[in-house]
Amino acid sequence: MHSNIKAASSNYTNLVDIGIGIVSGGLGGVVFWLTVLPLGVAKTLIQTNPDKNCSRNPFRILSSIYQKAGFKGCYTGLGPTVSRAFPANAATIVAWELALKMLGIKHD
Hints:
It is a multi-pass membrane protein. The chain has helices spanning 2-6, 13-48, 58-74, 78-103. The protein is mostly helical.
């Protein structure tokens, strides 16, 4: 991303860097949560189940969710998770990049 955009906008390098951080951090966070959300759903069900004798195997829990609610059940809470993930991860990447610049640490 950086090499394609930087040449076209040499006057606005700080804005370009922030924009790239926002897009890459936000999308990275969304992709991460799309990948691990089913395990998060299983973890939440295990933690909130009052029956201490129930299965603690997340894959067995996911199988049971899939049988009852289908693929959609494995992604319960996707909307709030993604709407939180994009800005949180975008801000994290931008803060990281700005901290590196302020400390004079170069990376390629």
